[in-house]
Amino acid sequence: MQEVIKKRVKELFDNNTIVRAIGWENGEFFYDHTPAVFDSAADMDVFVYDNFCASNLSKYLINHCAPEGKTLVLLKPCDTYSFNQLLTEHRINKDNIYIIGIGCDGMVDIDKIRALGIKGITKITQNGDELVIDTMYGEKKCKKADVLLEKCLSCKGKKHMIYDELISENEDEMPQDASKRFDLVNELENMTSEERFAFWQNELSKCIRCNACRNICPACSCRKCVFDNSASGVASKANADSFEEKMFHIIRAFHVAGRCTDCGECTRVCPQGIPLHLLNRKFIKDINTLYGEYQAGETADQRGPLTDYTQQDVEPTFISDKEVK
Amino acid sequence: MQVNSEFKPKIVAFCCNWCSYAGADLAGSSRLSYPADVKIIKVPCSCRVNPLFVLRAFEKGADGVIICGCHPGDCHYSTGNYYARRRMTLLFSMLDYLGIEKGRTRVEWVSAAEGVKFSTVMNNFVSKIYQLGENVKLGDLRCRK
After folding, report:
1. CA distance A255 to chain B (A)
2. Nearest to B99 among A196, A313, A320 (CB)
3. Segments in B10-140 forming alpha helices (H)
4. In 3-state terms, what secondary structure has residue B28?
């Protein structure tokens, strides 16, 4: 797949369809691919696409589109939802962008492989649904399904919502079991209020306010963020205000409510391993049950649930008066 | 639970300029009583209340926050309270999900003619907050014991 994509992008550079491409290159480690901007066919030599290209490239289009000419972007199926959402919000202009939809059969979490007790990993190759892991202590194997990223466990399907061209082998494949998506949210809802508080207190206390969840989020694309402190003299320096310290996670989740495509990047990048997607999913679940099924980014011309209403909406007292568990 | 007889709750009531604030006025001029713990903040419309305002009020020491607006369908700006209704439903549900007592937040629709309702709503809400006691959870959300 990597070579097919590389060849096609080089072709597009050569016939002047595009002037820039956004993809992935090797990071510090082989399992640490980072988003990269390629400005010529020769640059594309270092392009990579394998099991570790989890990052969603949609958001990079806001700041890294070429000033003139078309910018190519490689989008996995789940990334196309974020792309549509950015189009809806007029943050990017489709006329300047050329999308190649690329197939994906799930991305791998290196930490899950390590958790299996596999150390000294030097190379990972895929063989069917199995991963062959070369380590300093010999070859190991594991099932790919066991080490998928958290976000890939509730895959939205392999179908691209928007593209100009496809390089994909499994376009029609549906996710194995998307009904599990809200399992953890349900589990939390069924706890008592005290248990839930203990759970979140434990999780949110780990937060170091690095703002990674905000910076990676394709829905968090405001030019000026409420969490930036312009007085600090350092770009994007987090406010050290006690209000923010306490409320950061509630505010962050609320700001993307109704716009979050559930891409799961927040949880993936969290250095402290906080399951932030459970906050977003709670909003998604509430929106689905109270205001009708809604998937942000499915098309670029839908109206978000929080910028819409019906006269029959439930009253907030429905929550306030709910029986206390 | 130990009942602190000294506890005096601080309650913030966001009232819309067109209905609820006038309702509060009517309650006053009709000599209906409601607890002095309620501090009214006048807003142009219930949808002016950003969810952050609610959180900010709690952070500044409020023990309860109530938002009052025109009845659905009667909004001075036609649709403001419909948007407020969705926002606040989601916010309250989230606070509940995080384990914060849900009785601390409320939305009530009070028209300019409902002085009696204003006074009843406030009396009920304040007595609820007396039961719940001081708001400590939201402040402790990120402080593991």
Report:
1. 9
2. A196
3. 20-29, 51-59, 80-97, 115-132, 137-140
4. helix
Structural domains of chain A, count: 3
Query: In this structure, are A71 and A131 located in the same domain?
Result: no
Of B55, B73, B137, the CB nearest to A250: B55
**Mean predicted confidence (pLDDT) in A225-230:** 76
Q: Which of A37-51, A225-239, A283-297, B110-124 has the lowest mean pLDDT?
A: A225-239
Output the pLDDT for position A168.
Answer: 82
| Yes or no, beta carbons of A254 and B51 under 8 Å apart | yes
Chain B within 8 Å of A208 (Cβ-Cβ)? no
Cβ partners under 8 Å of residue A140, min gap 6: A118, A132, A133
Report whether A150 contacts A268 (CB < 8 A).
yes
pLDDT tens sequence across B27-56: 999 999 999 999 999 999 999 999 999 999
Q: pLDDT tens digits for A141-187?
A: 888 888 999 888 888 888 899 999 998 877 777 666 667 888 899 99
Q: How far apart are CA B33 and CA B115, in angstroms?
A: 10
- Spatial distance between the Cα atoms of A98 and A100, rounded to a whole number of angstroms: 7
pLDDT for the residue B108: 94
- Asked if residues B40 and B65 have their Cβ atoms less than 8 Å apart, the reply is no
Instruction: Give the closest-approach CA distance of A210 to chain B in angstroms.
Output: 15
> Whose CA is closest to A208, among B137, B97, B95, B142?
B142
- Tally the domains of chain B: 1
Q: CA–CA distance from A110 to each of A74, A239, A253 (Å)?
A: 22, 32, 27
Helices H / strands E in chain B, number of each = 5, 4
Contact flag A200-B143 (C-beta cutoff 8 Å): no
Chain A residues whose beta carbon lies within 8 Å of the beta carbon of residue B97: 188-189, 196, 279, 282
The parent domain of residue A143 ranges over 110-147
Are A212 and A302 in the same domain?
A: yes
Mean pLDDT of B103-119: 94
Question: Are A203 and A298 in the same domain?
Answer: yes
A285 touches B at CB < 8 Å: no
Residue B5 lies in a domain: no
Q: How does DSSP assign A138-201, residue by residue?
A: EEEEEEGGGGB-GGGGG---S--SS-SEEE-S-TTPPPS-GGGGGHHHHHHHTS-HHHHHHHHH
